[in-house]
Design goal:
Blueprint lengths: L1 E13 L2 E12 L8 E9 L8 E8 L8 E3 L6 H18 L4 E12 L3 E10 L7 E9 L8 E8 L7
């Protein structure tokens, strides 16, 4: 069983025809393991070749997503993710003079660009309404900076879920 988690591709021009390097992050399970393992792979794809259009260039155990990409956050309870979400609620409360309380991270993606740009959908509630509401937040994290490691980029209430 193989599930593709995420991927990207780059075009390799060779005259008129185009080839592709396809980078994938996959979960794969063989008969000897109970749980799937995460791998990263690069496939060389030549769509114009009918006999063997694909060639596996590399497959290795997944280490970390590469910089520049936007990747799904696997562990929504990761302390850095939760810390970024709680920071966003605290900063929003200061700026908007509200009393929202963080509930949970619903989903998220991480964009690695000179730090981590967290795109999160969170649940938060105020002291007036019993039901939590969903918010889309963006927090820029540069954890190596001591003075200001986190910066709130945006915070808005969702009327519907923007990304899956």
């Amino acid at each position: 069983m193989v599930d593709v988690i995420d991927g990207s591709y780059s075009v390799i021009k060779d005259g008129v025809e185009s080839d592709y390097d396809v980078d994938l992050v996959i979960n794969a399970k063989d008969n000897s393991t109970v749980r799937p393992k995460k791998y990263e792979a690069t496939i060389f794809y030549r769509p114009q070749r009918k006999d063997h259009p694909m060639k596996v260039k590399r497959v290795e155990i997944f280490k970390r997503y590469r910089p520049g990409g936007i990747w799904p956050i696997d562990d929504l309870n990761d302390p850095q993710v939760v810390s970024a979400a709680k920071f966003a609620v605290t900063e929003y409360n200061k700026k908007a003079n509200t009393t929202l309380n963080f509930v949970t991270v619903i989903k998220g993606r991480e964009h690695m660009v000179g730090g981590s740009l967290y795109h999160l959908v969170i649940s938060a509630k105020d002291n007036i309404n019993a039901n939590p509401k969903e918010y889309e937040i963006v927090v820029f994290a540069q954890v190596w900076l001591k003075k200001t490691p986190l910066k709130l980029e945006s915070f808005k209430q969702l009327s519907k879920l923007i990304f899956n």
